[in-house]
Design a protein that fits this description.
mainly alpha
C-alpha cells in the first residue's frame, strides 16, 4: 500500500507540473514499471531471507513443486541420488507443502531420539485426520498432555513386562490352537500366512478384551474389522493431491476423504459393539456385585479410566477408541 501511495502522489505532482507535456505519458509508464520492478525485487529479497535458514534442495516447478520428478517407483533411490547432490539434509517442495528429507543414519537418530520432542508433532494427511477423529490417537495426536496420557495408558497396560507376563497363558493358548489346527490338517495344504494372522489376532484380542467377542458373531465381527482396517491402510498409503494442495481439500478430487469416512463408519460400529459388550461385563447387579468375575482386560481398564471424569488419567470416548484402534491395527 505504501508503494501505491507514493506512486499516486508522484503522478499527482507530475500532472500538476505540466499536463500538456508530450513526454508525460512515457514518463508515467516508465515510473510505474520502475516502481513495480522495485516492489517485486523487494518481495523476492524478503522471501530469500525467510528461506535462508532452510537446507538446500533441487529447483522446483511453479505450483506443483518437485512432485512431477517423484512419480514412479524406487523413491528411496531417488532420495539417495538427491542426497549425493545436496547433502544428507535437503528440502523438497511438494505442491504447497515443504518437506525436509534426512538421509543419514546418524541424523535420523538425532531426529527421532535425541531431538524427538522437537520433531514430535505431525502433519497428518486427510485420511489420517479423518481416521483419528481429528488427530485424537497416539499415532497422530500433537505432542502434549493428551498424547502423553494416551501413551502412558497404552504402554503401561499393553506393552509393559507385567502385562506381557500376565498374558503368557493367553498367548500360549493361541499357539496351541494353531498347532492343533495344523495337526488336524495333516496331508492338506495350510495357508501359513492366514494361520499366523489368526494366531496373532486371537492372542492380541484376548489380551485386549478377553472373551467379550466369542462364537460365530465374534468371528464375523473380527473378520469384517480386519477387512476394514486393511482398506484403511490402503487409503492411508495412497497419494492424495489434497494433501499437497490444501485449497483442493474441500473438493476431495480423488474421493479418499469420502472413502475413509465410509471405512471409519464400519470400524467405529465395531468398536461400539466391543465397548458395549465390555461395559456389560463391568456393570454391577442389584446386589452390588459385578456380573462377571475375571481378571481385568485392557478394555475394562480403559472403561474405568473413561468413568474417572476428574482424574488426570481419565480418557474421553474418542481417545478410548483411538487407543483401541492403535492396539487393533497390529492385528491386521
Amino acid at each position: 500500500m505504501m508503494v501505491f501511495s507514493v506512486l499516486y502522489s508522484f503522478l499527482t505532482w507530475w500532472d500538476a507540473i505540466d499536463r500538456r507535456d508530450e513526454f508525460s505519458g512515457d514518463v508515467i509508464v516508465i515510473s510505474i514499471a520502475t516502481c513495480v520492478a522495485f516492489w517485486l525485487l523487494w518481495n523476492a529479497m524478503k522471501s530469500k531471507k525467510a528461506l535462508a535458514s532452510l537446507p538446500p534442495g533441487p529447483v522446483d516447478l511453479p505450483i506443483v513443486g518437485y512432485l512431477p520428478f517423484l512419480l514412479g517407483e524406487d523413491l528411496h533411490k531417488k532420495f539417495t541420488e538427491l542426497a549425493e547432490v545436496y547433502g544428507p539434509v535437503y528440502k523438497l517442495w511438494l505442491g504447497k507443502k515443504l518437506f525436509v528429507v534426512v538421509n543419514s543414519p546418524s541424523l535420523a537418530k538425532e531426529v527421532v531420539r535425541e531431538q524427538d520432542m522437537t520433531f514430535a508433532d505431525r502433519d497428518p494427511p486427510i485420511a489420517a485426520w479423518i481416521s483419528s477423529s481429528g488427530g485424537n490417537d497416539i499415532a497422530w495426536s500433537a505432542y502434549g498432555p493428551d498424547w502423553k496420557k494416551m501413551r502412558k495408558v497404552f504402554v503401561s497396560n499393553v506393552l509393559s513386562n507385567a502385562s506381557l507376563d500376565a498374558s503368557y497363558a493367553l498367548r500360549k493358548q493361541a499357539v496351541n490352537m494353531a498347532i492343533r489346527y495344523v495337526y488336524k490338517n495333516i496331508g492338506k495344504p495350510v495357508d501359513l500366512g492366514e494361520l499366523a494372522f489368526a494366531t496373532n489376532a486371537n492372542a492380541i484380542m484376548s489380551i485386549l478384551w478377553g472373551g467379550t467377542l466369542e462364537g460365530e458373531e465374534g468371528t464375523k465381527l473380527v473378520a469384517d474389522f480386519r477387512k476394514s482396517v486393511l482398506e484403511l491402510m490402503v487409503l492411508l498409503g495412497r497419494p492424495n493431491i489434497s494433501d499437497y494442495f490444501p485449497l483442493l481439500a474441500r473438493l476431495d478430487l480423488q474421493g479418499i476423504g469420502r472413502q475413509t469416512k465410509k471405512v471409519m463408519s464400519r470400524i467405529r460400529k465395531f468398536l461400539d459393539t466391543v465397548i458395549e459388550k465390555g461395559s456389560n461385563l463391568t456393570e454391577v447387579n442389584s446386589f452390588g456385585f459385578k456380573k462377571t468375575e475375571r481378571k481385568k482386560d485392557f478394555l475394562q481398564i480403559l472403561l474405568e479410566l473413561k468413568d474417572r471424569k476428574d482424574d488426570s488419567m481419565s480418557v474421553t470416548d474418542i481417545q478410548l477408541k483411538g487407543i483401541l484402534m492403535v492396539s487393533l491395527a497390529r492385528v491386521a
